[in-house]
Amino acid sequence: MSSVKLLLVEDEAQMARLLQRGLTEEGHQVDVCARGEDALRQAADVTYDVILLDWSLPDVDGVSVLRRWRETGLSTPVLMLTARGSTGEKVTGLRAGADDYLVKPFDFEELLARLEALARRGAGAAGAPQVGSVSIDLKRRALVRGDREAELTAREYALATELWTHAGDVLSRSRLLSSVWGSDFDGLPNVVDVYVGYLRAKLTDLGADDVEIAAVRGIGYRLRKVTP
Ligand code: CA
């Protein structure tokens, strides 16, 4: 496949060197970060096709790095590397927004195949989700209707992405809380209602009369198309 631009986050120098060499020989471009904080900065500055993220890092652990990325709306596919036999890590990693995982030690050919599959999937998913006349601009992090746009904060963006990618489905408050605010959120559940209010106000600002975030009593919300 064509060259993949990837960020490798791995603190073990020998492992990082081997992977960087192997992937470069396959024609891919590889940047390496050894620390979580560096990886957070690097992915904010440079757009990658795929991120390869080790769970165990010296400063911030991989899963916290991943959560921060997803909270801020970074949608780059992430393959997590986990230690052998830690099923808990696998589940936590996938819940935090990992697209795939691989258990160490792994076979290089398998890693390569999975990375390339993720890169292809990422490229195919580049289209902005649209419901009615309103789409989400993933690059500018905004709701767009015709030539007008409403900028979104990181939380609004994460909530809008959940609603738009699952348009028509009823999403419970607890699901929205854990996907947007994280499973360890301990604030008030009505934060969901507050943010739905913000998004509704932005839809009104855009003059969007063909889409609404409908309340489903006792459960949560559903984004749906309506007849103006
Ligand atoms: Ca490590």
Structure description:
- This protein has 228 residues and is an alpha/beta fold.
- Helices cover 42% and strands 23% of the residues.
- The mean pLDDT is 88.
- Helix 6 (154-165) packs across helix 7 and helix 6 (154-165) packs across helix 8 (191-205).
- Strand 6 and strand 7 form a beta hairpin.
- A five-stranded parallel sheet has the order 2-1-3-4-5, with helices on both faces. The chain has a four-stranded antiparallel sheet with strand order 6-7-8-9, covered by helices on one side. Strands 10-12-11 form a three-stranded antiparallel sheet.
- The protein has two domains: 5-124, Rossmann fold; 130-225, Orthogonal Bundle (Arc Repressor Mutant, subunit A).
- It has helices spanning 13-25, 36-45, 62-71, 87-95, 108-124, 154-165, 173-181, 191-205; strands at 5-9, 29-33, 50-54, 78-82, 100-103, 130-131, 134-137, 142-145, 148-151, 170-172, 211-216, 220-225.
- Calcium ion binds next to loops.
